[in-house]
Amino acid sequence: xxxxQLDTLRRIVQEINASTSLHESLDIMVNQxxxxxxxxxxxxxxxxxxxxxxxxxxxxGLNPESVGHVSLHTSEGLVGLVGQREEIVxxxxxxxxxxxxxxxxxxxxIYNSFLGVPVMYxxxxxxxxxxxxxxxxxxxxxxxSFLVTLCAQLSGVIAxxxxxxxxxxxxxxxxxxxxxxxxxxxxxGGIALGRAVILYPPADLAAVPDREAEDISEELELLxxxxxAVRQEIQxxxxxxxxxxxxxxxxxxxxxxxxxxxxxxxxxxxxxxxEGNWAQGAVRIVIDNHIALFSQMEDDYLRERVSxxxxxxxxxxxxxxxxxxxxxxxxxxxxxxxxxxxxxxLVELPVDKIAAIVTTEGAMxxxxxxxxxxxxxxxxxxxxxxxxxxxxxxxxxVDAHQGRVFIxxxxxxxxRYKEIQKEEEQIAKDLKQYETKDAITPDGVAVKLYxxxxxMIDVVRGVQRGxxxxxxxxxxxxxxxxxxxxxxxxxxxxxxxxLSHFANKPVVMRTLDIGADKxxxxxxxxxxxxxxxxxxxxxxxDHPEIFSSQIRAMLKASIGLxxxxxLLPMIxxxxxxxxxxxxxxxxxxxxxxxxQVKITKPKIGIMVEVPSVLLQIDxxxxxxxxxxxxxxxxxxYLLAVDRNNPRVANxxxxxxxxxxxxxxxxxxxxxxxxxxxxxxxxMAGDPLSAVILMAMGFNTLSMSSSNILRVRKxxxxxxxTDAQHLLDQxxxxxxxxxxxxxxxxxxxxxxxxxxxxxxxxIVSP
Length: 765
What we know:
This protein is an alpha/beta fold. Helices cover 43% and strands 15% of the residues. The chain has four domains: 3-174, 2-Layer Sandwich (Beta-Lactamase), CATH 3.30.450.40; 180-199 and 341-427, Phosphohistidine domain (Glucose Oxidase, domain 1); 205-327, PtsI, HPr-binding domain (Enzyme I, Chain A, domain 2, Orthogonal Bundle), CATH 1.10.274.10; 437-755, Phosphoenolpyruvate-binding domains (TIM Barrel, Alpha-Beta Barrel), CATH 3.20.20. α12 (367-375) links the parallel β11 and β12 (379-381). α1 packs parallel to α4, α7 (265-274) packs across α8 and α24 packs across α25. The longest helix is centred in the N-terminal third of the chain and has 25 residues, at 216-240. It is globular.
């Protein structure tokens, strides 16, 4: 694509992003494309799924009166052909094609050349973009590439319009149902009914939700105070830079102050507040309007002022948010929604007040979801079309079993889901009988069930539910809850709590595992591909001072308890283990000398997450005491699937034949060298896969406290002979869905149907 085409593409995309409605976006596109490509016609047809027809929604060149009226069935015409094939159709003599359909209203019979490109969103046809010329000619490959790129941009605009109810090509908007349904990915199962509370990042204009002002006078006062604070802040910056910068370099501060003059931006913001907007929303609207205006200007200098406008807007917003913490107030029915909610942001909140979590980003095994699962909070992620900013305080139902979110649900639906909640509460009560039972199969095989911890609530629930130890303590959690790296004594006190609650039982503490989806608020790691980057042991070996501080704290915390095991994350090579063992031995000797006490050397294990470890068990075995499978990362690396990307969430499955065969081989290798091997990933907490892991011969399964009773019940009801037969069948299958169906069928036919996430029965409104 040439530089000229790229510039044109950027300009069109900027104008579309600045438009206020779908119809405006479509009109901009057809006019700009027709001009840029020098074609006689550019048209956009959108698909109405209900009636299976393509409706002409915008056109430059066809009869204007046909727009909004002319339509074709999905099996008709060249437009239908593009949609059916889901690929480009490029013809130099379109009227001669067998699928050409004459539509008198459009006047298109005089056009010969035809280029049609499907508008696709997540493998789904949303519409067709068409360009036509009178002359008979083949459109170039560059033209095809140009339109494909534009269609990719347009698809997101159309999908968003569908999501927020701004498009229904055959019905008027006021006939739309009062509620909407959105599909995401189930992260942590459960049902919740409540009202949306938007968790938006501070000083992020784009994330500010729409909200009506409760008290206009109060909002105006908040704005005045914020404006005064920002003026003082900018004046202070100007004064500070008097000696460091020349006058022309400090001109920006004067520009800011002029923008903050009562007759400039503040006047526009106050006008919107008087119309009923809250102050933060009014700031967002005014700044966005000015950004859109500046972005379209031809003058380079003025276009570059966009970043200055954004900075000024963020300063005003930050000052407003400092005076208004209402967006963090939660009630017992609060459903937390946001683009991407970090683990740190989640655990800072009163988690007992969170009924459910819904995000537009993330995936089923992100770190935040794992923590939410441990806390028993229903969670749906990857709801990409959710119009977050317009949902503040809106009534919602979250069906986290199916990954569905219902906005403004009708009364009958609310009633049915309340009944389902009661059914689930009864199932939970029935599971309590398994708190005091051991996980022993009907034919006498015992399986050790451990708990994964990070927060104290995990420990309390783990003890209550009869966990035989801690299979994974996520030591990064305390690091996430602070505004700096915790000191050695702080860490010692935290680790002592964990070890004491499980005295006389093993506690496996994983060393600091940050990176990828586990960021520290005070130590951000920016990488293009963080899942394959500077994380786990790679980070701590590069920072031996952090590693040693943590090891020393763990060793001191274990004095007198002797139940500490240490687990090294993200191991790739033997040299990493050797270096870590050297540091550990050095710290052990130093702590013993300082404390004047003999400390039992903890058992050392490594996580099996990186596929290379699977092929080197014979070389790792002499160095370590045990192996622990991190099934979340191992699955994503084996399948080359980003587990935090909702677009490929359907590819990620621990029932995949490659995962099952790799784990079967791993168990045999570990047992050959007489090394215990456990699973501490989410695979262990799913009753269906837990039975398979049991059959493979894993010594221990470790899971979130919320799953212990479900897995224990499954083990108590499935004989080992049945489990091994199921494993034999699963290993012969080549499709993860077949494996899952096999397990679900067995559970349903052997009295364990409540362990399977059945499709929830919905009552139509």
